[in-house]
Amino acid sequence: MTEEPVGTDQRHCADVHERRQRTLQRITAFTDGGVAIALTLLVLPLVNFADQSTAGQSVAELFADHLGDVLSFAVSFLVIALFWRTHRHLYEQLVDYDEPLLFLNTAWLMAVVFLPFPTARLFVETRLRTDSAVLYLSNMLVISLLALAQAWWVTRRPDLQAPSNPVTTRALTPPVALCVTFAVATLAALASPTVGLLALAGLPLAQFFAARPAGPPRRRSAP
């Protein structure tokens, strides 16, 4: 029986690790591209307003007539950017992936790419409808839940994490803050669409407290 050369197994493991590293990079690049497309689609309804019929209006008048649309675009853009920031922080700590994480990431990306539709729905309405506001906010809630699911799964899989920068349960705090904010906003929108959308104003505050670093450990007093 011929013996395999010494180091064959090590070279094979290194090759597999390198290929999985390249795939992980492709996953993040694919996700970043999808997020960029979603951000681009958000502005298209605003572009449609700048047609020949508005040629006689000043920029100030145009913005005044479509102030709600501009605010919806700005909020959606900033929220997607916030989702991407949380996603980036999580994936910076990974050295590998598995199929459940890939599935959750694909579902998360699908929900992000879908967001321009409920945003555009808000644009075309002459008055704010309950179902449109609930669809818009629940879409964001689904995105935040899928982000939380990814972070939770990674905390259960130490083999996916970088040994020098492990993912702790602290990583669950930002997506939990997002989930709570959007859940409250969605429930509020059932009673009043305007109140539900205004509830998003609490999002920066929730993220501020969620992103605060834990305090330094207390020193034991000398006996």
What does this structure look like?
There is one protein chain. The chain is mainly α and about 220 residues long. It has one domain (about 10-50, about 65-210). The protein is built from nine helices and no strands. It has helices at about 10-50, 60-65, 65-90, 100-115, 115-125, 130-155, 175-190, 195-200, 205-210. The chain starts with 7 loop residues before the first helix and ends in a 12-residue tail after the last helix.
Write the topology of this structure:
Blueprint lengths: L7 H42 L9 H7 L1 H25 L7 H16 L1 H9 L5 H26 L17 H19 L1 H6 L4 H9 L12
Helix pairs in contact: 1-3, 1-4, 1-5, 3-5, 3-6, 4-6, 5-6, 6-7, 7-9
Q: Notable features of this structure?
A:
disordered C terminus; 223 residues; mainly alpha; 9 helices; single chain
User: Major sheet, described briefly?
Assistant: none
As for the number of domains, it is 1
Q: Extract low-pLDDT stretches.
A: 213-223
- Terminal-residue CA separation: 67 Å
Average predicted local confidence, pLDDT: 81
Radius of gyration over C-alpha positions, nearest whole angstrom: 23 Å
Question: Which structural class fits the helix and strand makeup?
Answer: mainly alpha
Which overall shape is indicated by the principal axes computed on the Cα atoms?
Answer: elongated
N-to-C SSE series?
A: HHHHHHHHH
Strand coverage percent: under 5%
Q: How many strand elements?
A: 0
Number of helices: 9
Q: Percent of residues in helical segments? A: over 70%
